Amino acid sequence: MTSIAADAEAWIRRYEKSPGSAVRLVCLPYAGGSASYFFPVAKALAPSIEVLAIQYPGRQDRHREPCIDDIGKLADAITGVLDGLDDKPLALFGHSMGATLSYEVALRLEKRGVVPVRLFVSGRRAPSRYRDETVHTRDDAGVLQELRALNGTSGDVLENEELLRMALPAIRGDYRAIESYRCEPGRRISCPITALTGDADPRASVDEVRDWAKHTTEDMDLTVLSGGHFFLNDHVPQVLNIISERLLPTTHS
């Protein structure tokens, strides 16, 4: 376990304790996002599924900590805080940057002998599908333009200068992490993948998302919903149903 991952309480948010849950779902936020994004998910899935939402450094109550702007190092740290949580089946859910990060965490967990029961990837093209994106090199106005285009950041934050000053370093660091990421060719996880995407996502085409099938030795299923990059905000009940249907039968088999 790395020193940066030593304090699990700093990294993991349990908004709804579910000691009798059949499975744990580790949720990883998008670039610039925080653990609180998954608060409604934790409430909705309890008590059958316990949600562990990951809080990256550099935001909210961890805003004084430096952001980790490297996917590999961030995955190392998260894998470290999940050490020992193998007393029940474990699944991973990530949106956008969190999807790529969850894939890297899954690879690391498998090296430790813990194979997740399923990986949920949302709003993100397959790790092997690259685009030349440089949002992290833009000035502040350019970063804000991207956030507004994707419509995933609260308007209160975008209009509040003080909140923006606090949030921008983490947002820029996250973009640097995901835009500089390159996956190691040939690596595949050993658990099934459920991919979700919006039919009008400017950052992930359906074809790019479909290529997640190349990154697992098991099955991959794809659900395409209406909407853009944050399509899941408009389809919460359906997304929750997909998670429950994929996870609960697995634990009762």
TrEMBL record:
<protein>
    <submittedName>
        <fullName>Alpha/beta fold hydrolase</fullName>
    </submittedName>
</protein>
<dbReference type="InterPro" id="IPR001031">
    <property type="entry name" value="Thioesterase"/>
</dbReference>
<comment type="similarity">
    <text>Belongs to the thioesterase family.</text>
</comment>
<dbReference type="InterPro" id="IPR020802">
    <property type="entry name" value="TesA-like"/>
</dbReference>
<dbReference type="Pfam" id="PF00975">
    <property type="entry name" value="Thioesterase"/>
</dbReference>
<keyword id="KW-0378">Hydrolase</keyword>
<dbReference type="GO" id="GO:0016787">
    <property type="term" value="F:hydrolase activity"/>
</dbReference>
<dbReference type="InterPro" id="IPR012223">
    <property type="entry name" value="TEII"/>
</dbReference>
<feature type="domain" description="Thioesterase TesA-like">
    <location>
        <begin position="26"/>
        <end position="247"/>
    </location>
</feature>
<dbReference type="InterPro" id="IPR029058">
    <property type="entry name" value="AB_hydrolase_fold"/>
</dbReference>
